[in-house]
Amino acid sequence: MSKIGIKRVMQLTGHSAPVYALEQGQQASTVFSGSGDNMIAEWNLERMEAEKFAIQLEATVYSICYIAIRHLLVVGQAQGGIHVIDLKARKEVKHFSVHSGGVFDLQYLPTTNCFYALSADGSFSVWDASSLSLIRHIPLCEAKLRSISFHPDGKQLAIACGDGTVRVFETELLNEIYTLHAHDPAANVVRYDPSGKFLLSGGRDALLKVWHVTQAYELVRTIPAHNYAIYSIVFDPTGRWMATGSRDKTIKLWDAATFQLLSRLDRKGMQGHMNSVNQLYWTNYHNYLVSTGDDRSLIVWAIEH
Questions:
Q1: Hey, CA dihedral for 236, 49, 16, 66, is it positive or negative?
Q2: Is 72 strand, coil or helix?
Q3: From edge to edge, which strands make up the β-sheet containing 72-77?
Q4: What is the DSSP pairing of strand 165-170 with strand 176-181?
Q5: Using CB atoms within 10 A of its CB, is residue 90 exposed (0-12), middle (13-18) or buried (19+)?
Q6: 143-183-154 Cα angle (round to 5)
Q7: What is the per-residue pLDDT for 225?
Q8: What's the burial of 304, exposed, middle or buried (CB within 10 Å: 0-12/13-18/19+)?
Q9: How far apart are the C-alpha atoms of 104 and 80, rounded to whole Å?
Q10: Which whole-number Å values give the CA distances from 48 to 12, 57, 288, 296, 299, in the listed order?
Q11: Is 278 in contact with 20 (CB distance < 8 Å)?
Q12: CA distance 105 to 117
């Protein structure tokens, strides 16, 4: 296993329940987190402390999407609700109840000016970010939808489904163009690499799979990456490295070009997480990798440039 320079910078505490969501904050040096304590917090990575900002909602926060150009914070909850908060006006402007199950992922696509919500009810919805109106609501399968990722050119999106498939759509008309039988029993996370050449998927089977986008999503690699389910896949801002987070309490760092394992961040060797790693976010600020999970904390990692 190759080594890269890694430093555990700080462990941030304040949430009183597992943390499920991480997202870019209002500044380059901040990140949002959402938790089972029904709270959203914002953390300053320069001062390594919580900002004087907090939002309390009525249910567990599973997903957060910050649309900076519109100063909107979109929040997905365990009961299926989607809250839209205008951070500039400091008030909630919309509350949607389209979904009957938890909203596990929310992502914004600038090329369509839409945000996309994935739900435990097996459907996903598409919303206009200007009018905050529903464009499409698409039932996809009878299992949970966990994760969505957009190709860098904005023309395709991929969805990880609880029935084990990864579904690929074109974004203009939302026609399904590929169905990948990816993981047994469930696909948990998908992520396009920054080059757009590959799609990565992680599942409950603890496997990391690499799909070649320009070759009709042919499976090119299957990597036994973790001991338990993979929940998160992120790339660093330069596209040089990627990281995976798992229910096995570890984070693993990989070469994004060769998919060679570079390092393992765990409790014993690196003072990592005590419980499941639920989410990762790789910031532009000092190339910090932020991780969070069931131990209610955020850990900030500095990765050598």
A1: negative
A2: strand
A3: 61-67, 72-77, 82-86, 91-96
A4: antiparallel
A5: exposed
A6: 80
A7: 98
A8: exposed
A9: 9
A10: 7, 24, 12, 16, 10
A11: yes
A12: 6
Q: Tell me whether residue 11 is exposed, middle or buried, using C-beta atoms within 10 angstroms of its C-beta: 0 to 12, 13 to 18, 19 or more.
A: middle
Strand partners, 207: 224
CA nearest neighbour of 20 among 299, 206, 296: 296
At 2 the pLDDT is 56
Contact 26, 42 (CB under 8 A): yes
Beta bridge partner(s), residue 127: 115, 134
Angstrom distance (rounded) from CA 30 to CA 112:
26
pLDDT for 92: 97
Which stretches of the chain score pLDDT less than 70?
Answer: 1-3, 305
Backbone angles phi, psi at 214, to 5 degrees: -80, 0
Distance separating alpha carbons of residues 21 and 64, to the nearest angstrom: 6
Cα separation, 263 vs 260, whole angstroms: 9
Neighbouring CB atoms inside 10 A of 71's CB total 14
For 47, residues 6+ apart whose C-beta sits below 8 A from its C-beta are none
237-294: pLDDT as tens digits: 999 999 999 999 999 999 999 999 999 999 999 999 999 999 999 999 999 999 999 9
pLDDT score, position 4: 86
Contact in structure between 252 and 269 (CB atoms under 8 Å): no
